[in-house]
Amino acid sequence: MTSTVHVNLPGREYDIHIGPGVLDQAGAQIAAMGGRRHVCILTDENVATLHLAQLQGALSVAGLTSVALTLPPGEATKCWAQLERSVEWLLGQKVERGDIVIAFGGGVIGDLAGFAAAILRRGVRFVQLPTSLLAQVDSSVGGKTGINSPHGKNLIGAFHQPSLVLADTALLGTLTSRDFLAGYGEVVKYGLLGDADFFDWLEGQGSALAAGDMDARVRAVTRSCQMKADIVQRDETEQGDRALLNLGHTFCHALEAATDYSDRLLHGEGVAIGCALAFELSARMGLCSQEDPSRVRAHLRDMGMKVDITDIAGDLPDADGLLALMGQDKKVLDGTLRFILARGIGEAFITSDVPPDAVRTVLHDALARR
Ligand code: GLY
């Protein structure tokens, strides 16, 4: 079973092909895009060990030669030094305007390679071959590319849409359970922000999905990509609606900063905890029913995910400390915290009208749930 989601951005439209085995179409799909019959791949050591031979085989079947730069795995790779290394390597490979760069990996490689493609010769085409669930449902779609700064995550970057995305759901089989569930945090986010029926379906099918049910995986990735495509088509550069995709992220970014962006908390885990907190805050502000945050928390718990701040190992700042970290988030506008809250499951909205005291109380109570 495979599916296709079309991202309809005039002049920059592209397809996302989803399903087990779509990686094997990489050669035929990329050859059909024209350009030099030699492609450059940016990947990381883990993905290269597991899957690079399969990709290069698929490319050569279609008559494409390829060469790969293998970067270290992990968030620290999204830095100036690795960007410089990647861009200089691509220039050394004589990549020209009409050529294609392949991003083969999770969110780190997708963001870095996409940004390298955005600035190389003022922009070359790139193809996203996402290998993690998080990258398949979120970071490979929509054209946000970039690296981190010592001042914060994703502060340096560009909007640069890929020309094609191939999300091979068979590759998800090599993820650790922790990485899979972190990506699932982003899947749940889509149901919570805009599709109550999808959330209902996830409540029923989530365990099968985690256990490897391929049809369920394809369906979940497809629905997530379709929702993201719909939002990106309305608001490519996040002037409005695209911020809905940040449900849970204001809390998440504070928690990621508090844990030094280390593997104490993976991004998708922070998103899941952040979504639960956003619903808690919404209920306390009388925007949604008290049952909604309980339902969100129950599903995350059933999936064996982190749900509470206190599920994060080690010490954390107090409520005021976390609130101060939120103030440094790039989603702060004119000093006002911007939140994505909800009137119910599937009914998220953007607001700056959130009393800091309400946030402080939610954080304080969450920290006390030890
Ligand atoms: N990950 C959020 C966005 O792409 O806008």
Low-confidence stretches: none
Q: How many DSSP E strands?
A: 11
Number of helices: 13
Strand order of the largest sheet: 1-2-9-6-5-3-4
Percentage of residues assigned to helices: 40-55%
Q: Output the radius of gyration.
A: 20 Å
Order of helices and strands: EEHEHEHEHEHEEEHHHHHHHEEH
Structural class: alpha/beta
Shape: globular
Bound molecules: glycine
Q: Round the mean pLDDT to the nearest integer and report it.
A: 95
Cα(first) to Cα(last) distance is 44 Å
Q: In percent, how much strand structure appears in the residues?
A: 15-25%
Largest sheet at a glance? Answer: 7 strands, mixed
Question: How would you explain this protein's 3D organization?
Answer:
- The protein has a 7-stranded mixed beta sheet, sandwiched between helices. Strands 7-8 form a two-stranded antiparallel sheet.
- The chain is an alpha/beta fold and about 375 residues long.
- It is globular.
- The mean pLDDT is about 95.
- The structure holds glycine.
- The site of glycine has 5 residues, from loops.
